[in-house]
Amino acid sequence: MFTDIPAFLETVIASALGFFIAGFGKAWFDAKIKQANNLEDGRDADVDEIIQITKDVAALAETYWFSVANDDDLNLQSRITTKINHISALSVGIFENDEDALSEAYRVISALDTAITHGDFGSKLRQAEPRRLTEILSKSMVVERTMRTQRRKLSPRWFGMI
Amino acid sequence: MAQTIKIVEDFHPYPAGRYPADGEGNGTSFREKFLVPALKEKREVIIDLDGAPGYPVSFLEEAFGGLVREGFSPEAIRQWIEVVAKQPGFERYLRHIEEHITVAEQQSSAKHVH
């Protein structure tokens, strides 16, 4: 019994080492998968936030352009401008590694921005422009659709890479 | 050395509106106070957009498109005025400004043709 103790120990150590490496490898891989899943969840949450803010902006713009200049203008202008910029900043976070997607996001955000803030936006003498609403709603839907589409096209980010 | 103008610090924390009647942060006042003097003196200026909550199209169009309507050529504007923005999402304002200059030039050319 135990006539070849060094060989036996060698087997035990090799088994332990193999077990340790396999366990470590699995833990490392699981952590990376979890990290990647968290990133994907974060991207989805950002897209959902963009869509919600876009709806908010369209509603604020409706309030703004349905009436003539009034005391609430400054409040609405600030909220509209800040929210549009927030949409833009969130897009950078989602599409920072995909130049084409970011460019497309910028294009549709700028179109919405232009629809809302061109012309007499910010003027104390402005008139109501309810006719703008169709364009604003149309552009806001394009933003929502584009964000969802570009998000679907985005490759998962594994191990810190695209 | 080029002078750097940070809009939120040197002009107004909330740039908005076209005309002086629209409030202190309007595009016309910004253009007349900072951009026109630089162009007339052929002095290089750097316009830093960072720090603002955002820029309405009406402000940017009046400030930069208005330069073309005042008679400055797009080439001179691009030569003496550099606009910078590093804040996330602000890069698109650089494209807006370029578009406003180009569109104002096209509208100006169309007027001269007619």
Molecular structure report:
The complex is a heterodimer of chains A (162) and B (114). Chain A has 162 residues and is an all-alpha fold. Chain A contains 4 helices and no strands. Chain A is rod-shaped. The mean pLDDT of chain A is 91. Chain B is mainly α. Chain B has one domain. Chain B has 5 helices and 3 strands. Chain B has a 3-stranded parallel sheet with strand order 1-2-3. At the A-B interface, helix 2 and helix 3 of A face helix 3 and helix 5 of B.
Question: What is the topology?
Answer:
The complex is a heterodimer of chains A (162) and B (114).
Chain A: H1 5-65, H2 73-95, H3 99-117, H4 132-153
Chain B: E1 3-6, H1 7-11, H2 27-40, E2 45-48, H3 57-69, H4 74-80, E3 81-84, H5 91-113
Parallel strand pairs in B: 1-2, 2-3
Backbone shape of chain B? globular
User: What is the tally of helical segments of chain B?
Assistant: 5
Strand order of the largest sheet of chain B: 1-2-3
Helix content of chain B: 40-55%
Name the poorly predicted regions of chain A.
Answer: none
- Multimeric status of the protein: heterodimer
Note the beta-strand portion of chain B: 5-15%
Shape of chain A: rod-shaped
Strand-residue fraction of chain A?
under 5%
Question: What attributes does this structure have?
Answer:
heterodimer, A: mainly alpha, Methane Monooxygenase Hydroxylase, Chain G, domain 1, rod-shaped, B: 114 residues, mainly alpha, three-stranded parallel sheet, 3 strands
Summarize the structure.
With 162 residues, chain A is mainly alpha-helical.
